[in-house]
Model the fold of this input.
Amino acid sequence: MLDVQTAKNLMDSMYLAKRIWEQQPRLPQGMSPGMIHVLDALVQLESNGAMVCVSDISDRLGLPRPGITNSVKNLAALGYAEKSASPSDRRVIYVHTTAAGRKIHHQYVAEHFERMCAALEKVREEDAQTTVRTLQQVYNVLLGPHAETKQPEDAAAAKINRH
Done:
């Protein structure tokens, strides 16, 4: 069990993490960090050649479908994603990135995290993994019995940037 000072230090560290997160590059107008997160998951799923549905993104991120549906709707409105019905079953809706979406993804995810890796070169992989696991654990504990038990399929999706 943590002592009081350690619990305070842990919470102070989370405040620092929030301040670090706020230093992310300014996104295009109308974009939110959550939408970038959804776009990233979509690009990753598409890279496997899969036809992607909202449920696939939801499962990948471990987030509820209504929020993903809203993010996809907003991405489509901005021209970064498109939705299309399956030719064999019109009830099934697929989501695709557009050229503009891939460009935004490259700029705000691929290039940004390449720069981050270079800046964080002195942080050991083991320490980063421990931090990720600890934040996930604290998040789940603090949500208590209302926490979703579903975990993201992708460890990279465990970034704490909930909508």
Notes: The first helix runs from residue 4 to 21. The domain at 26-158 is CATH 1.10.10.10 (Arc Repressor Mutant, subunit A). The helical segments are 4-21, 33-47, 54-61, 65-77, 99-119, 125-143. Residues 45 and 52 are 7 Å apart (CA to CA).
